[in-house]
């Protein structure tokens, strides 16, 4: 199996390290800057559970060097995708599958979603529709990322939590390509269930990200405060209820209720969300993938989302003024 990880930072680096360590997948990593230079010079170091290992997958700067693949795992931040989709073309052969391991509503969300919205495009994450055209959704296997990881220094991945990457075809079928990828990830030490309703799974993750992340960036509060302070928790809960109404209009079924999902966030404790971390580091924030897209979907299905709209307006201004949007 030839597999390329495009944008191998924290999550992609974690996947690359464990897949390469197993040895039976031909792994190529595409990265850039000092992180790429460090991996090329010293290998890719993974620190996980107090253990360190160094692997040496092929690390390159461009898709031309990697050539056509069986699988392309896209582990970019959502806002990097429109700029990178063209660069990925040399990775795509006739049957190459693309796995989008990216938080938020993906560009392919409406592909094969039976009903009135089938094949609509999501402008928040694919403003000119070029991601859809270049990375056609028929190639896509959906993926929900549960682990947490960081890049504390170039070439080094620190894995802090979790081992599950839930997979699923947009049309809910159990395909050979999804099964084969799942088997490779399981062999590498991950959990990788293939689920028939990948959008349901996606929303449970997004449910937290659409509320916790913006509120943390606006207030600088950690998750324990967002979920524990009564006033802030009420705003968070209201955003999530709006998200639930939007998702349910699109056919999503939530297996847990909103208070259980908030309790799940509370368990993470005094953690800075990834959006707050990006803001503090002056890096672009996933504003549109995590909340702009939710408001866009609210407009499409004509469900009111007043709290999400207010928070989105505040967040965009916060992010713009910080140079992160
Ligand atoms: N990290 C985490 O714990 C979790 C992350 N996620 C989600 O996973 C996704 C990936 O996040 P994460 O791994 O943290 O992000 P990172 O920023 O760590 O990784 C993305 C990498 O892609 C690189 N990159 C960007 N554009 C290009 C390009 N054109 N060519 C080559 N490399 C490129 C970036 O380089 P550069 O740094 O130079 O921009 C960076 O190294 C996000 O959607 C995130 O929300 C989900 C759950 C947890
Ligand atoms: C907040 C958290 C831990 C869960 O929603 C997360 O996924 C993030 O920081 O982006």
Automatic annotation (TrEMBL):
A GO term for molecular function: 2-dehydropantoate 2-reductase activity
PANTHER family: 2-DEHYDROPANTOATE 2-REDUCTASE, PROBABLE 2-DEHYDROPANTOATE 2-REDUCTASE
Top-level taxonomy: Bacteria, Pseudomonadati, Pseudomonadota, Alphaproteobacteria, Acetobacterales
Assigned EC number: 1.1.1.169
Protein name: 2-dehydropantoate 2-reductase
The entry's keywords: NADP, Oxidoreductase, Pantothenate biosynthesis
Residue ranges of every copy of the Ketopantoate reductase C-terminal domain listed in the record: 198-317
GO BP terms, alphabetized: pantothenate biosynthetic process
Reaction equation(s) it catalyzes: (R)-pantoate + NADP(+) = 2-dehydropantoate + NADPH + H(+)
Family (UniProt): Belongs to the ketopantoate reductase family.
Superkingdom of source: Bacteria
Pfam family, one: ApbA_C
Top-level enzyme category: oxidoreductase
A Gene Ontology term for the protein's cellular component: cytoplasm
Domain Ketopantoate reductase N-terminal, first and last residues per copy: 4-171
Signal peptide positions on this chain: none
The protein's role, per its UniProt record: Catalyzes the NADPH-dependent reduction of ketopantoate into pantoic acid.
